[in-house]
Design goal:
Alpha-Beta Plaits; 4-stranded antiparallel β-sheet; alpha+beta
């Protein structure tokens, strides 16, 4: 059998506790050869409150923990009976491993260089620029690129509208 990633369901808010408990159990029950890594997928999120940027870590899948393991009766038992674990994700009693592409997607999301911003903007909305050469200018959102976390805005300068592309973290809602 080869090691694969499985999704474990936990009580809400117990993800980090389950990770700690499971890592201790793996050590005390000498399961390092079958249970390898335990992950609570997190990503950095930027919130802008009162004009200040605040970066926080947010759980990507609240209520779930990922476990890299070789699925056998004894390793299943160790994970399943860890305090806070309600079960494996999969139909019936058969846990289903994640595909390689799903794992890569999650790991990429966790190691994302560009933290996600929660602000959502609409075309036509007025915003204030808070960073960069156009700081303190009022602009109108023309286009929104959520996947890139960017906006195309029209900044009014010298009586003329100038299109400018800005990152979400350079602007705030008015």
């Amino acid at each position: 059998m080869e090691k694969q990633w499985y999704v474990v369901h936990t009580y809400a808010g117990y993800e980090n506790k389950v990770k700690t408990n499971l890592e201790k159990r793996v050590e005390s029950m000498e399961m390092q050869n079958k249970i390898f890594r335990v992950l609570v997928p997190m990503e950095k999120e930027i919130e802008i409150k009162d004009g200040k940027r605040k970066s926080t870590m947010k759980k990507v899948f609240p209520g779930y923990v990922l476990v890299e393991m070789i699925m056998e009766d004894d390793s299943w038992y160790v994970v399943r009976n860890t305090p806070g674990v309600t079960g494996f994700v999969g139909p019936g009693s058969k846990p289903v491993p994640l595909t390689e592409s799903e794992v890569q997607q999650i790991l990429k999301q966790m190691g994302e260089a560009e933290p996600r911003s929660r602000a959502r903007f609409d075309s036509g909305e007025q915003i204030r620029v808070i960073d960069g050469p156009f700081s303190n200018f009022i602009a109108v959102v023309k286009e929104v690129y959520n996947e890139k976390q960017k906006l195309k805005v029209l900044v009014s300068m010298f009586g003329r509208e100038t299109p400018v592309e800005l990152n979400y973290d350079q602007v705030e809602k008015m």
